[in-house]
Task: structure prediction
Amino acid sequence: MNRSSSKFMQAIIACVMGGVIVSPTVWAQGNLMIYPKMGQNPQQQQQDQYNCHGWSVQQSGYDPSNPPAQSSGPSFGSASRETLRGGARGAAAGAAIGAIAGDAGKGAAIGAVGGAMKRGFLERDSQRQAASAPPPGLDNYNRAMKSCLEALGYSVN
Result:
């Protein structure tokens, strides 16, 4: 084996061992996998992606390279209000049940704790779900990007 092929083999082994395998014809942008169908070279593909990105931003009003600032979510005060609201409802229900059983105060206390916990858990779950949702506009951007690239001869998944 000559010296240049030895260096080439070392580079391939380093890439495979490092978990890096680069294909010059397949590019991923966000969640889109882009494959050239008409033999476009990497430079042409990069230029087409740049042009389609500009068009997609214009069409969708969303720019993934400059996303809008994420709000920090509901403030602590809103979660506290929901917890208090749940506690009040639970206390009312607990007082009614406790009155039937003979101790309205004890029933109200138990109901308040249970209602507050339930409402607090529901609020926490809704905040987590909102935080994990994709940013608004991303789906429209991806659809525009896919349409543009497909029109230029790429397969987009």
In short: The first helix runs from residue 3 to 17. The CA atoms of residues 69 and 135 lie 10 Å apart. Confidence is low (pLDDT under 50) at residues 11-28. The beta strands are 27-29, 32-36, 154-156.
